[in-house]
Structures are given as structure tokens and as C-alpha cells.
Design brief:
- The complex is a heterodimer of chains A (405) and B (145).
- Chain A is of the alpha/beta class and 405 residues long.
- Chain A has 14 helices and 17 strands.
- Chain A folds into two domains: 139 residues, Aspartate Aminotransferase, domain 1; 256 residues, Aspartate Aminotransferase, domain 2.
- In chain A, 40% of the residues lie in helices and 17% in strands.
- The longest helix of chain A has 21 residues.
- Chain B is globular and about 50 Å long.
- In chain B, helix 2 packs across helix 3, helix 3 packs across helix 5 and helix 4 packs antiparallel against helix 5.
- Chain B is built from five helices and three strands; from the N terminus they run H-H-E-E-E-H-H-H.
- Chain B has 145 residues and is of the alpha+beta class.
- Chain B has a single domain, classed as Alpha-Beta Complex (Sufe protein. Chain: A).
- Classes of the chains: A alpha/beta (405), B alpha+beta (145).
- At the A-B interface, helix 12 of A face helix 1 of B.
- Bound molecules: pyridoxal-5'-phosphate.
- Pyridoxal-5'-phosphate binds next to helix 4 of chain A.
Chain lengths: 405, 145
């Protein structure tokens, strides 16, 4: 793979920050966008912009065609059986809220168990807390072991027939743990639970096949995989989607409306009320094309090499504690704590050297408590990052040590 | 090659306070107490204050965890405020706020002493809340909120 050429597809990376070449290591929060995606967006606004599904004029036809083509691309991207199983949302968070407020409200009752893990992002936690409060169901957590993996003994005890829903993260944004999704989903399904996989950190980083994984719902965000912000996907198995009530009411989602009541369209339109983020959807389609042209296997391999190298080099820094799996079998991110600098100070110091990282609780407060750290600093990579950038990072960490001690 | 802004932000005196905080610990009751936190970054502070019969702050201590700026600011605050009346403390607090926010000249710069070293925070607007954390807690404790 010609990674340097691929890197040059990202205009934003070619700049100086505070007098240093930008080293962008905050990809788990949001990735950068290749020229192909940026140009698709401007082309859409310069040539094709119109509302979709409503008019018969040329621009509306073009917009509708590109919009529905993106739905097909998204279906293919995650191995869905049909593009009708692809619902466009604002992102992972909205997708999970949609499930909680439709399927959840319809199916979860007092006494039921909603099972999550101790490493969930707040977006795969708060909607279930709210649902549990509304319905009287109980929210239970699979504990996280010291090495950042799930406690498999506890899973045996917690995964019971009372579990109505098992929702968990595919790759943890704060630990880098890759959960054995297929195996966990199979166990849950055998007991009759519905499963939701949070793919915010796995989509765009590895090949995804929802039918092979066996999950009922899969959610991801476009902006973490080269797409625009404000657009994401909820995949749902058709049998479930068909039985679900709508969430938001409005235009686009109804079949017929009278003053007494209305009937609703079939999925996915039933769940897409109002004018959608048309440019976002088309931009997401361009991002999928771009990623597939590189190849998700290639991206996964490169991710893995970067993570491995980063683990090796970063362990050399005195006073570092790396959270999560100690091996290279992890997502492309390393979260760590330094005994000589608070994350806040370190991130400031790194920024003054052009290195962009994130410090804090990464929207996983219960996990920070579990590992007894107030927060961590996280370096997260994508395929355009380089070995040299990891060297720069390590150099900055060593400089910070001199500075703060 | 470090930027001057960063050197100003993390002067040796500030780093020394953050590493060896003065007046760290709790005061036994009876005393005033307040807890402050910055939810977005996880910084936390607890301030304990004893006000004497003459209305002066006889003693104050703090515990907490957070970045160098929030810890140094707390440490320097306890040194500066001890022995002051409530009104004097409020005046110092207001002057300190002006300095870290770059919001006009302090009324009495000399009274700030070492605290003036946190002036570098001006260039880092996101860090103002770190510098002010202990001071907000102090105000709450004194007002019994
Ligand atoms: C694991 C995980 N889940 C969910 C989310 C939420 O994604 P979004 O903010 O795009 O809805 C994130 C993003 O930070 C994440 O890392």
C-alpha cells in the first residue's frame, strides 16, 4: 500500500500548528476527511442540491438518486441483507436513542434486564438508564478486568433469560479493547436477547459483516470514518424494524394522514422524519467508496501495526501506565496515565508541539472510576498516521517528563 | 523549542506549588466547607475554612486532584487568603479573576503577590476554569452555599 500517497489525500494534515508539523492523534473523537469527500460535498451543493423524494424536477431526481445510492453503499459496507435495513441518523448516539425509544419502549417491561458493560461510552449507557427508569427494568453491567477485557465468568452469570437486550461496544474508545462480538452475540441470542453493537470505533477500521456478527442492531457515525459530521447509520434486522413504532413524527415517514390519525411507511422511511441531512448522506457514501478503495483489511492491518508500534515505543516512557490490553491486539488507540503530569497539562504541552490528543474521561466516567484515574490522555490513530508521528509523540512525552518533573 | 506562552503558563513557582501544595488537608469541624468540580475535565477540589470571631479567615486548607494550574492556584490561594477578612478575600478574588481572564487591571496588583504568576492563563482561555476552581469553592464556603 502506498500510505504516503493516501495520506496526501487529506489536505488538512499538511499544516503547521504552533510552529510544528501537525500530528493529529485524536481520530477516535473524529477523523479527518479526504479530498474525495470534501469535493463530493461541494459538488452536491454546486450542482445537485434539492430536497429528496418530493419533486419530479431534475435536481431533485439527482439528489434522490445519490441519496439512495449512499444507502446501498452503507448496506454493502456492513453486509446488510437489504438497503431497507439502513436508517440514516445523526450518528451513533441518535441511533441508540432511536432503538431505546422505539423497540425499547415497545418491548422492555418492569423486571426485564438490560445488559451493558462497564466500558460503554455514555451514548450507549444513558439511553438505557433512561429506558430502565421509564420501564422499571434493571440495568446490569458486565465488569471490566484489570487488563481491559470483559469478565467472562461474570458474563456467564449475568447473561440470563431475563436479559431483554444486550448492548455493548465493539471496540472501546477508552481502552482500545476489541470485544469478541460474534461470540458474545451468539451467547445472548441463544438466550433470546436482542443485541445491539456500538460500532462507533470499529466501522471504518475493520471489515464489518452484520450477518456474520449476528447482531440485531449495529450503529456507527460517519465522522469517525472519513465522512461528514452529523450523519450516521442505524442498521436493524428487518424483522425487528418492521415491528417497531416510529419515533419522530413528520413528513417523509407517513403513508396517509387524516385528522384522526395516520399510517406509517415501511422501514427505513418510517424512522426518517423530515428533510434528512442529504449532503451528509451523500458525503458518507463518498467516504465508504474511499475506504473500500483502500480496503478495510488493509486499513485493519495498518491500524494494527500502528497500535503495536505505539504500545512498544510508549512503554519506554518512564512513569507511564497504559490502560487496556497490554498486547498489540487492540484498536488503534492508546490511553495512558503519566505519573508526572495530569492529562490536562500533558495535552496542553503536546499541543504546543503540534500534537493533537485528547485528555479527560472520554465520555466513560464509570470506567475511569473503575481504573481509579481522574482521566487519561488518549492517542488515537487512523490509517494516515505514520510511524514517524508516533516517534514524535514519544519524543514529546519524554520532553514533558523533563518539563513537569 | 517551547513557546513563551507555555513557559509563562507553567512557571517554576507554579509547578512547585502543584507538586508540593501548601495547606493541603482537611480542617476539623467546626468550619465552613465547599466542594467544587469541573465536570468536563474531572478536576475536583474541597476547601475548608475557619472564620474567627473577628471575622477573619484564621485557617483554610484544601484537598483535590487536577491539573497543575488548578492545584497551584488552590495552594497559592490558601497562602494568600489566610488572615484576611472576608471583604479582603473577596477583593483579592476579584483581582485574581481579572488577571487570569485578562479582564481589566486589578485594583490592587501588589496585594496579589505570587498569584500574579498565573497571569499566563490569559493566553489559554480553556484553562480559566482550572485557575478559578478553588476560588469558586472558597466563595461558596464563605457564603455557606
Ligand atoms: C464507542 C463510542 N460510542 C459512541 C460514540 C458516540 O458517537 P457520536 O458522538 O458520533 O454519536 C462514540 C464517539 O465518541 C464512541 O467512541
Amino acid at each position: 500500500m502506498d500510505w504516503p500517497r493516501i495520506r496526501s489525500d487529506f489536505p488538512i494534515l499538511d499544516q503547521q500548528v504552533n510552529g510544528f508539523p501537525l500530528v493529529y492523534l485524536d481520530n477516535a473523537a473524529s477523523s479527518q476527511k479526504p479530498r474525495a469527500v470534501i469535493q463530493t460535498l461541494s459538488h452536491y451543493y454546486e450542482r445537485d442540491n434539492a430536497n429528496v423524494h418530493r419533486a419530479l424536477h431534475e435536481l431533485s431526481n439527482r439528489a434522490t438518486e445519490a441519496f439512495e445510492a449512499a444507502r446501498k453503499k452503507a448496506a454493502h459496507f456492513i453486509g446488510a441483507a437489504s438497503e431497507d435495513e439502513i436508517i440514516f441518523t445523526r450518528g451513533t448516539t441518535e441511533g441508540i436513542n432511536l432503538v431505546a425509544n422505539t423497540w425499547g419502549t415497545q418491548n422492555v417491561r418492569a423486571g426485564d434486564v438490560i445488559l451493558v458493560t462497564g466500558m460503554e461510552h455514555h451514548s450507549n449507557l444513558i439511553p438505557w438508564q433512561m429506558l430502565a427508569q421509564r420501564t422499571g427494568a434493571t440495568l446490569k453491567y458486565i465488569p471490566v478486568l484489570d487488563d481491559g477485557t470483559l469478565d467472562s465468568d461474570a458474563i456467564e452469570n449475568l447473561l440470563t433469560e431475563q436479559v431483554k437486550l444486550f448492548a455493548f461496544v465493539h471496540i472501546s474508545n477508552s481502552l482500545g479493547t476489541i470485544n469478541p462480538a460474534k461470540e458474545l452475540i451468539a451467547k445472548a441470542k441463544a438466550l433470546g436477547a436482542v443485541t445491539l453493537l456500538d460500532g462507533a470505533q470499529s466501522a471504518g477500521h475493520m471489515p464489518i459483516d452484520v450477518r456474520d456478527l449476528g447482531c440485531d442492531f449495529f450503529v456507527f457515525s460517519g465522522h469517525k470514518m472519513c465522512g461528514p459530521t452529523g450523519i450516521g447509520v442505524l442498521y436493524g434486522r428487518m424483522a425487528l424494524l418492521e415491528a417497531m413504532p416510529p419515533w419522530h413524527g413528520g413528513g417523509e415517514m407517513i403513508l396517509s394522514v387524516t385528522m384522526e390519525g395516520s399510517t406509517y411507511k415501511a422501514p427505513p422511511q418510517r424512522f426518517e422524519a423530515g428533510t434528512p441531512d442529504i449532503a451528509g448522506v451523500i458525503g458518507l457514501g463518498a467516504a465508504i467508496d474511499y475506504l473500500q478503495a483502500i480496503g478495510l483489511e488493509n486499513i485493519q492491518r495498518h491500524d494494527h501495526n500502528l497500535a503495536n508500534y505505539a504500545m512498544q515505543r510508549m512503554s519506554e516512557v518512564p512513569g507511564i501506565r497504559i490502560l487496556g490490553p497490554q498486547s498489540g491486539h487492540r484498536g488503534a488507540l492508546v490511553a495512558f496515565h503519566l505519573d508526572f503530569a495530569h492529562p490536562h497539562d500533558l495535552v496542553e504541552f503536546a499541543n504546543s508541539h503540534g500534537v493533537a490528543m485528547r485528555g479527560g474521561h472520554h465520555c466513560t466516567q464509570p470506567l475511569m472510576k473503575r481504573f481509579k484515574v481522574p482521566g487519561t490522555t488518549r492517542a488515537s490513530f487512523y490509517f494516515y498516521n505514520t510511524i514517524e508521528e508516533i516517534n514524535s509523540l514519544v519524543e514529546v512525552l519524554l520532553l514533558a517528563r523533563k518539563f513537569f518533573t | 523549542m517551547l513557546s513563551d506562552d507555555l513557559r509563562d503558563l507553567y512557571q517554576q513557582v507554579i509547578l512547585d506549588h502543584s507538586r508540593n501544595p501548601r495547606n493541603s488537608g482537611e480542617l476539623p469541624p467546626p468550619c465552613l466547607h465547599a466542594h467544587g468540580d469541573n465536570p468536563s475535565c474531572g478536576d475536583e477540589i474541597d476547601v475548608w475554612v475557619r472564620v474567627g470571631e473577628n471575622g477573619h479567615i484564621d485557617d483554610l486548607k484544601f484537598t483535590g486532584q487536577g491539573c497543575a494550574i488548578s492545584q497551584a492556584s488552590a495552594s497559592m490561594m490558601t497562602q494568600k487568603i489566610k488572615g484576611k477578612s472576608k471583604d479582603e478575600a473577596a477583593a483579592v478574588r476579584e483581582d485574581f479573576r481579572r488577571v487570569v481572564m485578562g479582564d481589566g487591571a486589578p485594583a490592587n496588583e501588589d496585594a496579589l503577590g505570587e498569584l500574579i504568576l498565573l497571569e499566563g492563563v490569559q493566553k489559554f482561555p480553556q484553562r480559566v476554569k482550572c485557575a478559578m476552581l478553588a476560588w469558586r469553592a472558597l466563595e461558596q464556603a464563605l457564603e455557606g452555599k
